[in-house]
Amino acid sequence: MQAKKPEGTEDLFGARMRAWERMQAVARETFSRYCFSAIETPAMEQVDVFVHGIGTSTDVVRKEMFRVFSGANFANVLEKGSEAGLKPGKRLALRPEGTAGFVRAAVENTFVPQGGAPVKMWYAGPMFRGERVQKGRLRQFHQIGAEVLGASDPALDAEVIVMLMDFYRALGLDMSRVRLLVNSMGDPACRPAYRGKIRRFILDHADEMCDECAVRADTNPLRAFDCKNDRCREVMAAAPKIADELCDECADHYARVKAYLDEAGVAYEEDPTLVRGLDYYTRTVFEVQVTSGMGSQSAIGGGGRYDGLMELEGGKPTPGIGFAVGFERIMLALEDQGVDLAGPEPSCVYVACAAPECRDAVFSACLALRRAGVRVEADYQGRSLKSQFKQADKHNARLCVVIGPDELAAGAVTVRDMASHEQEQVPMDGLVEAVRNLV
Ligand code: HAM
């Protein structure tokens, strides 16, 4: 049997791998200007990290988490018919997103001691959601995310959004085809009353809305704004707007975030129906969409403030804010706009072996060049010289170093420029210097 990759996953190699590496390099360059440092957290966490953080009523937790059991634990689950017999520490899931695990790490490693300075960190890696697979929606996808813990200053909300837009621009996205949506979701002071209003609104319109929204009225009424059913969305367009229900503190925070965005010259659209799919958000939320060529999966990133999440993960009250972007979605947008993020394979020097008795000299030349920091490729299959030149072209070689019996006898090598086809002989011990002068 020839095994196939699981549905909704991808093998990353070649140009696509170069694009993923390039995207991470752009993130590192951009985010380091804002003094973010990198972090890597485990790809699996205790289920409770996600249940507490993301919320029990979200689709991500209810329907999309991949559970992980080691052999012995799996036998236990099979025997008992559920994971109830496992200690919480043995109930594991692949991370569906990065924020909950990051906050777990911040609590466990005391990133923000009481009164300490804010911590700014970014990450890149695979995330896992058992979603219905379609273009731009995978089961293993890659996110780059950035998070800040320890400050509630609205200037920080604006800076995080400005940094996100800087990142898209640096990737080469056409910013006239990108739109930034912002909203405020209120806080524990004003949201409960708003949730109550939305609940009543849904119940009043229950006969026009889907069964799932009827359930949402009690579990998570704001999610009705995101219902996939067009009729529900039409009905919800007339629902009360959070902007009219914010408490004074949240309204002031939101106004200041927008004022800072104005000052930074970052264009945004206010979307009072933007609620996001994860429960931890408070106050500022935002999403970035591409306006053409992406079908229904147009969101290339999103985030917001999560001032209550540290406590939900067992830490001291600590405000937080962040975002994540999807690699695969951004690639669809870049491809649609004709931007080649991967670029060509980096050039190299090819060392060609013109006769079997030159093999050892080729080995030594490769060794010397690589030790001098040059990217070098050679032949390992005894190919003809003509075929080695073809290989050199394939590998995008700038120079080809040829070693044949004549060169060997003269203690020299021939260095050939692959573009101009000019070539010269240089002494074997002058090879590194000659190559350095030419590349
Ligand atoms: P999210 O909106 O669920 O937020 O995901 C962020 C981005 O990941 C999306 O905008 C999209 O580009 C990409 N994405 C999500 N699901 C998929 C999928 N199944 N296939 C391909 N791409 C996908 C979060 O994950 C939050 N943790 C963001 C955040 C960080 N909020 C605060 N800090």
Output the CATH topology of the largest domain: BirA Bifunctional Protein, domain 2
Q: Structural class, from secondary structure content?
A: alpha+beta
Strand-residue proportion: 15-25%
Which molecules are bound besides the chains? Answer: histidyl-adenosine monophosphate
Question: What is the CATH architecture annotation of the largest domain?
Answer: 2-Layer Sandwich
Can you tell me the number of structural domains?
2
Specify the number of helices. 16
Rg (CA only)? 28 Å
Spatially, the strands of the biggest sheet line up as 1-5-6-11-10-9-7-8
| Overall average pLDDT | 96
Largest sheet: 8 strands, mixed
Poorly predicted runs of 5 or more residues: none
Output the CATH homologous superfamily of the largest domain: Bira Bifunctional Protein, Domain 2
Helical percentage: 25-40%
User: Class of the largest domain, according to the CATH hierarchy?
Assistant: Alpha Beta
The span between the termini is 47 Å
Tell me the number of strands.
16
Outline, from the CA principal axes?
A: elongated
